Structures
1.
Amino acid sequence: MVQCEMCGSETSSPNRVKVEGAELDVCDECTDFGTEVKQQSSSSASTKYSTSSSGSSSSSSGSSSSGSSSSSGGSSQRRRDMFDEMDELAQDYDETVRSAREAAGMSQEDLARKLNEKASLIRKIERGDTLPSDDVQRKLESALEVDLSAGGTTDESEWSSGSSTGEYTLGDVVERKDS
């Protein structure tokens, strides 16, 4: 007997349905809450990512993982994430903006006028109370001729591993407080 993933009741023949983007094994009563998913035959289902020893859950997780890889064009590459292409804001962005503004001989009001933004926003950014939006960040970088992104500036020696395999372990990157 398998438990319904929505209501928790025991069911001998769960139905695979998609509810708000998630595929669930549910009982007959909960099937109406989603749309039924056609299952692939177990011979074509990949068990590469299966960690379960029960037959029903490994074949269902295998079919869901092979279904997701086929939706990405069948490639074996990792799915692209929108955050991979975003630059992170430097931690000292507030000090960078303030020192660049002062070096240019501008007041907060002058900079705000130049950027077509409010002076209160410039004050908040320089205090570190608010993060600049992408648009405001681009304006600041252009007007003050500074780089506020922290992308790719990590010290590579910090990430050097003692392992000859080139893989990192938690011990390679963690800093202990007691040492």
2.
Amino acid sequence: MHAALAGPLLAALLATARARPQPPDGGQCRPPGSQRDLNSFLWTIRRDPPAYLFGTIHVPYTRVWDFIPDNSKAAFQASTRVYFELDLTDPYTISALASCQLLPHGENLQDVLPHELYWRLKRHLDYVKLMMPSWMTPAQRGKGLYADYLFNAIAGNWERKRPVWVMLMVNSLTERDVRFRGVPVLDLYLAQQAEKMKKTTGAVEQVEEQCHPLNNGLNFSQVLFALNQTLLQQESVRAGSLQASYTTEDLIKHYNCGDLSAVIFNHDTSQLPNFINTTLPPHEQVTAQEIDSYFRQELIYKRNERMGKRVMALLRENEDKICFFAFGAGHFLGNNTVIDILRQAGLEVDHTPAGQAIHSTTASPPPLPLQPTHSSGTAKPPFQLSDQLQQQDPPGPASSSAPTLGLLPAIATTIAVCFLLHSLGPS
């Protein structure tokens, strides 16, 4: 995963065990007065022609688009090759993500989990299903997105999923996340626009590389601990005794208006709950630290090294092309980043502040539209990756034969995780 797949993902993303007041403005901030005042998550790889690294965030693109500097958008438009963490246009990505979540043939979650933990999980999912109609917005219903369908798209077939994936699923089934389902996350929007603009698209990772650490790295007792802690957090939120410490709103506000270096690196990139809590007994603190260290090593540091090497290979293959790499911002911030890997190999990589002109050999294209696009002219509701994972048609108009890939999380940032659980729109 980037954690883990999931959703973001990953993002409500992150419910932690320590409560923290929410921003009084709901995560919003005023657009800066000029381009130079905007945050920039764009880096330029100095070569002729240039290449670009852009840090995304796994949230609905409409929540951040106005805060992305014009030069970042111009770099995307000038590019002829666009690469994401996963290939968001390949149907195999969808089927592989679905398959890697499942328990071995013939096994069910009820047979795997301790009896008490299984029934707590079932009670919580029953609660979410009951509450989901009241969590959804009129705008979602107006687009044909209904609670029963959404619940089935996210949580359908949960009894056949591996516990670590169920843990990620539970972490994404919050009121805040549900209210944003249906709008493509930023990565997906860029992938849709790249296809519309006839750009060549690709990926630097394969689904199996993101799934393997989730499915095979932790022992069963660690997985049970993680699922139990996630349930305890959500049960406390339900009871009103705990407020999620880092919400999607916090993440959006930092991306748009704040210093994201610590926030993205520790949260959105991994798309996992934070299990480290000083109130835990000493032996459980040890387990929490082991899990945190494992995911940080496997899903951040090792991925950064792999992604950096593949960026270099793609640059060699496309020496005469302007390339644009859109990865979760956490891969560019913190320690042992993709940028560090590139610089260690001798490439010159500079941060590109908002307001600084980019150097392009192409004419300026028209601005990107602020609306989702689909490969088919047939109108269809904004259902994303999770829909395809369930292999069922959404209600309403018949869908086109070409599947519309929901952005894959963070699952991304992103890691496949993100893509998975936040694909229906949010995160």
